[in-house]
Amino acid sequence: MGYFNDYPLAQDLAQDVFARVWQYLPSFKGESSVGSWIFRIATNICLRQGERQRRISQSEVPPPPTCRLKQRMTAQCMCRPCIRPYPGFQRRTA
Question: At what angle do helices 34-59 and 68-83 cross, to 10 degrees?
Answer without folding.
Answer: 170
